[in-house]
Amino acid sequence: MKIGILSAGGDCPGINATIRGVGKTAIVKYGMEVIGFTEGFRGLLYKDYIPMDEKLLSGLLTKGGTVLGTSREKPFKKKDSDPFEDKPEEIKKNYKDLGLDALVCIGGNGTQRTANLLAKEGLNVIGIPKTIDNDVYGTDLTFGFDSALSIATDAIDRLHTTANSHRRVMVIEIMGHHAGWLALYAGMAGGGDVILVPEIEYDINKVTDYLQERSMQEKSFSIVVVAEGIKKEGNKPAARYIAKQIQEITGMETRETILGYIQRGGSPTATDRIFSTQLGGYATDLIHQGIFGQMVAKRDGQITHVPLEEVGGKLRLLTPDDPLIERGRSLGVCFGN
Ligand code: F6P
């Protein structure tokens, strides 16, 4: 068999470990031929690819980013600048010309949606979920999340000491446009006093009352963790918006930190390396068995697969009664409501 791999959308730690998991299993276990498309669906569209042998796959386990590159090319969305009349047709032609038996698409929600559409066009597709946001529908966990969580937690730990020295309210913004998983988990792991996530509507007065109460209890500093996607006015970053409001309402000295792309960079954690290896290897096992149109997933602690059809176009968000939110509340963490 001959298989193609691509990584699309925003990068995260663990993509290379996943590529290695798919590729090595294909070559070592099944004797398959492997090619890697460069820059996501763009490579598939423009037939830009590299043959991947075992040597090329060696040393990838610990590397951040993606050796294949990535892009936000959406094959089912026509742009004026596109040189192709019909992008899905071009992709189907390339897939056939290259003699591919299967295509592995590593990516977040948008990628899984495209993977499903390509499967509907008749391609043998397997999706592998990745994102630090952990918001891919159909899986309990995405790789990249654990790595980002450890970076964000370390940042919050570091803010504690400087917050303490200056007796300030430190507001830290964690990635997560739609979902608050990373902000919630990093906030809980880092001992945040206030955690604001997009899924829970907050009242700024509840936040400021809580901070003033803390200060009356002679708690000399506070850590406020906010997800980038919380509701706000204007186009200021979430942390700046919240810090300004806190300072205006309470007169407390505030500072903001926007962690940004640091969260997506660098080497994956041990947990993400293992998880990526498991997902990648499992994807190749499915291909060998002739099972397609599926996304590899982790459910109830097991590596399994779900139909792409069920995943495409949906998001996995926090629910306000998430057990970790409940646990936080029982410790006195403020969620702004
Ligand atoms: O990887 C997911 C994510 O980090 C989101 O939380 C964030 O909003 C988005 O990617 C930004 O990515 P980019 O700037 O690469 O489009």
Explain this structure.
This protein is an alpha/beta fold and 337 residues long. It has two domains: 187 residues, Rossmann fold; 119 residues, Rossmann fold, CATH 3.40.50.460. It has twelve helices and eleven strands. It has a seven-stranded mixed beta sheet with strand order 3-2-1-4-5-10-11, sandwiched between helices. A four-stranded parallel beta sheet has the order 7-8-6-9, with helices on both faces. Helix 1 packs across helix 10. The protein is elongated and about 70 Å long. The structure holds 6-O-phosphono-beta-D-fructofuranose. 6-O-phosphono-beta-D-fructofuranose (F6P) binds next to loops.
Proportion in helices: 40-55%
Q: Structural class of the helix and strand makeup? A: alpha/beta
Low-confidence stretches: none
CATH class type of the largest domain: Alpha Beta
Biggest sheet, spatial arrangement of strands: 3-2-1-4-5-10-11
Largest sheet: 7 strands, mixed
Number of domains: 2
Q: Mean of residue pLDDT?
A: 97
Q: Provide the β-strand percentage band.
A: 15-25%
Q: What name does the CATH topology of the largest domain carry?
A: Rossmann fold
Give helix and strand order, one letter per element, not per position: EHEHEHHEHEHEHEHEHEHEEHH
